[in-house]
Task: structure prediction
Amino acid sequence: MRSRSLCLSISLVLMANICIEAQKRARPSAQKERTASVQKPKEVGSTAVVMDETLSVLRVKPSLFADSVQRMRRGRKIQVLGVKEADGVKFYRVSAPPNNSGWVQADAVFGKIREGDDARLAGLVHASNGFDQIELASAFFELYTESQFRPALLLLYGDLLEESAAKLSKDAGSRLNRREMAATAAPMHSYYLNFVMLDRYRKLGIVFLFNSASRTFHYDGASWRAVVQKFPAASEFAEAQKRLDSLKLKMERSAVK
Result:
């Protein structure tokens, strides 16, 4: 009897040890499951750029009704620190150097943190107008170097800038003082190429040529050349080449007598 009792006791002890060891081995997988369930959103830690100034209010809390810290300007770089849904939209908790932080509606920023951001920004470019449209297109080219929307936007960008060149020619012709220009030894073309309204285009790296004979500005065609050189299979190739041929004729044309 004693032998049987001893064996039973030993068996119970062994079974208890086995259960304890099994529980210990099970804990890591349970821990992994809990960790996976609270895994941080993929946007966290990413950088992005403010593009839509209409939605770019930096707020103290993730709510459309929260107090604002500031309205961030287009081109402001931010880092995503957190994500939260509220008031029917997604908010990012962001740091906005040099010294601001808060919550901004996710739709205001663009980057490589979500699929389809290039399509969203391309849509915003097409929906905009004036110099805003040019700024947004410039930002698109910096952010999305491999996007399928790039050829179409490069063609549009060149067209917008040639339209701007025509307006600049008219403005320069009416604003530059001919008497002052004649009173100095400076060449006439230098007055046009220093025209103050060119400044904001220069900040974007845009170059305008000047035809001294006709006293007109023309876009230098960089975006059209990019289509021809980098996207020979694109449907925009032929149109871009036509624009480059037209530009060459415009720069060779003398003033009409």
